[in-house]
Amino acid sequence: MNYLSIIITLLTELVRTVITFKTAKVFFSDDEASPVRISAYSFSFIATSALYLFYHNPILNLCVTLLCLLTVAFTYDADVKRRIGFAVIILSLSAALDTLAVYITGGMTEDPLYGQVQSVISILLYLLAYVIYHRISHKQIKKSMSIYEWLALIGILTVSIICLVILVFDPGISSYTAIAVCFALLLNDIVVYYLFSGLSNRYQSERETLLLKEQMSRYEADLSAHMKQEDQMRLLQHDIKHHLLELKAMAETAQYDDIADYISEMSLQGFESDMPVSTGNRPVDSILGYTIRHAEESGVRVIHHITIPQDIIFPVYDLTVILGNLLDNAVENAVKAKDPYISVNMKYAMNCLLIDISNSYDGTVNEVEGKLLTTKTDASSHGIGLSSVRSVVDKNHGELCIDYDRNRFNVKVMLYI
Fold it and tell me: Taking the model in full, what pTM does it have?
């Protein structure tokens, strides 16, 4: 076996290991790349590669691959049945794709050229299956790029497989040339796949940024309106002595109609504040006040308990993103429930700000690859709320916990200030 064949073998096994890692996210919610998990995947890659290079036996290869998959599966936090199911499904899929690769290239043969081509075709089929599944199942990815772009990616992989099949049946091509073509096609398809993945992530990021800017503009407008109202109220409170003297003079002369008109004029100028929450922290009061009014107008009962100081030192932008998205999501889902309500609790203690928001909902949760997605039809412009919150929480080294049952959805955020 020449050095180019060895490189192809290592490359195909590396690609297979990476695809298996990505596929594992479908089965397990815990997708963090911990040192133990990285070691398990590294062991799998080394073991399967060494076996293929030095002792290529189908039965032994199958047993070692199953052992490696079980080793990887048991690094995830899940029950035993799910772990074993993952290993069996991946092994069965790999075996089926290997069989298909052998079948479309004319069957088993002792020629090492056929073995290399069949190996590359098998891994391209594995990558093609993953790309198709990812396109169908992942709504956020599905909406971030057009169907034509995805068809182009699928078409490139399919054309590469067809080229390799044609290559096998060409009697005039040398083994070295055939292996070189296999290497070039495999490397090309890997690069193309990652370019498409990067393009998809960029589209997703740009859309999130645009929607976030629109959302921030709305909150900024609400905040400005409430600040103006508070300023008007402060002016009236500053002049309250003069107002009381004027009202007293009217009362002494029995000008009761004038008193009523005077009080009405004071109310119109903003004396009667409609702020449902008053903590002294303007951004928090504004966002909570807007959400509570919106919720009550939508028929949603609001329970709130806020105990935070006026002078919390935390970026207003980040706090707006967290509160705004969580409260919007809570109200939007609560209106679908039989008993619509949201519960908002905020508490500050020992340099920690706890935000605890619960709401009733209809019991429908859309979860893909361990991540919650929107249940709205228009997934292209919704469903990024929790993603934005998670991003801001991670940026500030905080913690985000999501919990739900059939009737209640709860999100807790811990911020260290």
Answer: 0.51
